[in-house]
Structure prediction request, 331 residues.
Amino acid sequence: MHPFKTAGSNIRAGVSVDQFAAARIGRATPLPSLELGIDPGATAGNCDSGYSCAYSSCISWKTPTTPMAKEINPKLVFERMFGTARLDPKERARRDSLRKSILDLVRDDSARLEKRLGTADRRKMDEYFSGIRELELRIELSGRTADRRPSTFQVPAGVPDDFERHVHLMSDLLVLAFQSDVTRIATFMFANEGSNRLYSMVGAKDGHHALSHHRDREELIAQLRNIDRYLIAQYARFVAKLRSIPEGEGTLLDNCMVLYGSGLGDGNSHTHDHLPIVLAGRGGGTIRPGRHLQFPAQTPLNNVLVSMLKRVGVPVERFGDSTGPLYGLDG
Prediction:
């Protein structure tokens, strides 16, 4: 859906496909979903033509009014996946018990408060309690997650200064999350929308966003092409790492679906059709990769998402403006 144009707190968009799936299958793993990024995010302020920064810094939305803040610190991602430091099991149990007691207290107090609230405030309270219930589930599963902590993976120290090292570290953590079955659903933003990051390592002299408005000047298009190659190489590295890990009779990649792309077909003219989309992985043997498929004009991107939802056990015929699943992915 089109986001509500505002730079204030009254933001409104649609539930994103990752959170739509997490609400239905997320309870199967310690973390329902994982939201990663490289650039810091903001949920307030004007970032683009009167639109809130929440729209450009978050692609994951739990509800129409609740964006999921992405984590950019690899150390915090690791701790969220496997628990803080190397706590003694008794200390971890004590902390979990304390958290549960606090949650019980909050629940009792809010139940009394809810009787005095109006419809809109009750809706907000319901969103709040959804978060409480998720936290309770995380506490319940925390022991199982701690047992999956890999002994060979070095705990990250913090946020790297180097962009490529940062991307690689976050990608490796995402591979580890899938390999350990900590989560089965994730989003990863290489940059915020509208980012004007410099990619001098590939000979780009201007910022990324500035180059996307190239005005058909070949010297600017050449720089933009170098950035595109560089970024998709980071995606290719991630996919190759998934493929290098045995799982079952195949590889981890065989049991994944990794969608990479853009919401714009042409940044120069801001067109939203002919989107360049790459889908890697075999989806548990339901996708035949290694092909370039071209679909009829005006085929909604959400048809791809419906097809992906079905493959992860979410039976749905429509999502957003979809007209149904995308046929032909299985060959």
About this structure: The two ends are 30 Å apart (CA to CA).
